[in-house]
Design a protein that fits this description.
4-stranded antiparallel β-sheet; mainly beta; 2 domains
Length: about 180
């Protein structure tokens, strides 16, 4: 059930039970794979919520508004954002655990469009650079970035078994 700029999370056993209600202009969230925590933005910033105890683990952080939040596994996630009032050509990756502790922050000196995580390739992400046809393959352990130039714009990309697949709306494909 969604009203204008309002979001609700329910759980269901034999009936619906409300868990969380939040307001935001843009709904960005990640749910842990074991359904124990929810990371989200509300209209003011980032918040991490325990679904087991139905309480905020990490109080509201207003330094940034997440563009994306990705659940990496049952215990970890990453917030992807641009720093408010700073260089908008840089994309920040800030890693957190289920207890609400930050443990790594990385800066990629490019403005990125839609970052995806590969669950089989630990700490590996793929994103398209805004305003170019380049894809960036990003690994955080050890930290390195590989720029992959394409002769088409990758409109779609997803994780395959041990690689990534990307395609354009015109049917062009790259592995």
């Amino acid at each position: 059930m969604t009203e204008k700029n309002q979001y609700f999370l329910y759980y269901f056993d034999s009936q619906f039970h409300p868990l969380i209600h939040w307001k935001t202009d843009t709904c960005v969230y990640a749910l842990s794979k074991n359904l124990t925590w929810l990371a989200l933005n509300n209209s003011h910033g980032f918040e991490l919520i325990s679904l087991i105890h139905n309480l905020s683990i990490k109080q509201l952080i207003i330094d940034f508004i997440p563009e994306q939040i990705i659940s990496l596994d049952e215990d970890h996630g990453v917030v992807i954002y641009k720093q408010n009032n700073l260089n908008f050509q840089e994309t920040y990756f800030r890693f957190f655990n289920r207890r609400g502790n930050w443990y790594d922050t990385y800066i990629v000196s490019s403005s990125l469009h839609k970052v995806i995580h590969h669950p089989a390739l630990n700490n590996t992400f793929l994103a398209r650079e805004k305003c170019t046809n380049n894809l960036l393959l990003i690994n955080f352990n050890p930290f390195y970035i590989s720029r992959i130039p394409l002769n088409f714009r990758a409109d779609y990309y997803l994780a395959a078994e041990n690689s990534f697949i990307c395609a354009s709306e015109q049917g062009e494909i790259a592995f």
